[in-house]
Design goal:
- By secondary structure, this protein is mostly helical.
- The chain folds into 2 domains: 363 residues, no CATH class; 126 residues, no CATH class.
- The protein contains 23 helices and 2 strands.
- It has a two-stranded antiparallel ribbon.
- The protein is globular, with a radius of gyration of 24 Å.
- The relative contact order is 0.17.
Length: 529
Amino acid sequence: MTTAVKPMIWSPGDWNALFGFGTNILVNMLVLTGLLRYVLGMPDDLVFGRILPAVGLMMFLSTMYYAWLAYKLAKETGRMDVTALPSGISVPHMFVVVFVIMLPIKLATGDPIKAWEAGLTWVFVQSFVLMAGGFLAPHIRKITPRAALLGALAGVSIAFISMRPALEMFMTPLIGVVCFAIILASWFGGVRYWKGIPAGLVAIAVGTLIAWGSTLFGFSIGGMSVDNLGNAVSSFGFSVPVPALGHVFSGFEFIGVILVTAIPFGIYDLVEAMDNVESAEAGGDKFPTTRVITADGVISLVGCCMGNPFINAVYIGHPGWKAIGGRIGYSAATGIVVLLLAWFGVIAVLMALIPVVAISPILLYIGMLIGAQAFQETPKNHAPAVILALVPHVAAWGKLQIDNALGAAGTNAATVGFDKLGQVGILYEGLATLGGGAILASLILGSLAVFIIERQYYRASAFALAGAVLTFFGFMHGEAIGIAESPMVAASYMLVAATMLWIARTVTSDKTAPHASPEKVTEPAVETA
């Protein structure tokens, strides 16, 4: 029987974890703010008066909850070395909701409020997927190949996370490329900066110095100006989140587009949360998986109802914070700091001080990491399946670029004519079909390829049949949910399903071809937050 002890709320190692984890969260907040202001073009009163206060509240609730969960575990076990799970806004999902949901709706409607409402509804749906899915996660984990899950995420990382920041970096290379080198040297090369200062903070500091230093010579690299900083300081104020239920339900007019990504990414969240809880258990801290997943859903739901269009998630990295001495207090302290920054408008001042291009290398690094993970965490001979899973996202990105360019010229593809576009090598209809519902298309195509590689033709047939059903109702390879949205594509998947079934029953495959062991097919995916 364990002797009852009162756990320590704060330990000396919590300072290290607070600085490291807090910096990580701060960078994420700056990135998020930059996406809202400069990619979506949302007005500052919406960003700083509604969204960021709700983000601060959600992250405060999340970090406090996981600090309490760690306190409870420490009290039950009598251990003083329990470390709270790190948590915050899911970084990959932050880009998905911005670039795959909110940006297309902003471009189609010209209204940033509608884009915000669609983001709120996206989180609303995902929250319930998480809450209900805590009991389904083990089954989903068993049937979906890792290459398909990570390949789908890698496609998003290349097309919708990496491309824009890479372009921004080379538009302002004195800041972007230099900051990128600083980040790569540390996060990939193992370089440690003075007194262990995080590389992200060093990069932002160097980029800021270059930007403000250029103003001394009569020009501005990075768009910094004293006037903008003065405006940010003058608008310094106090904002608390207010209920946004009306906006949440207004976003349901875009439910067809939202379901295509909210459901599969909600499923992915389940697997990611399970893996991160398992990682913590391997480090000695056993937290209840179902309670963690459900908490992510509930906290995200509270956040979206108050105006936050971003999902909450348990982060990978628990063993790292534990190794540097983090225990319970670092999580709670991070939540308090974030709340103060968001509610008192400090983020606005930081955005006026820091050039956006100094943050872009961090986004490209995240995209590189997510994309690389698809190849590093899957068997070598599943690489073709990963590549296949990338293709729908490349098609979706290409279509978006064409639509934006034609829209800027006051026209569209239908007006120009698909035949004329085809004559110059732009197969617009193919891009639209392949890129429609790219997330699900990636999962289906990637899974199909994996099971063919593994000669598991019955499973390949089942996924092809699922692809036929999803396509028929417009969840993939279509522009909207409905009936018979892409009947020819659905029929093609049906024929593939029949072919795989026929092969499974009548054809003997080449047993000499190299392939991975079956147990590697269904390993879970690990997301880097």
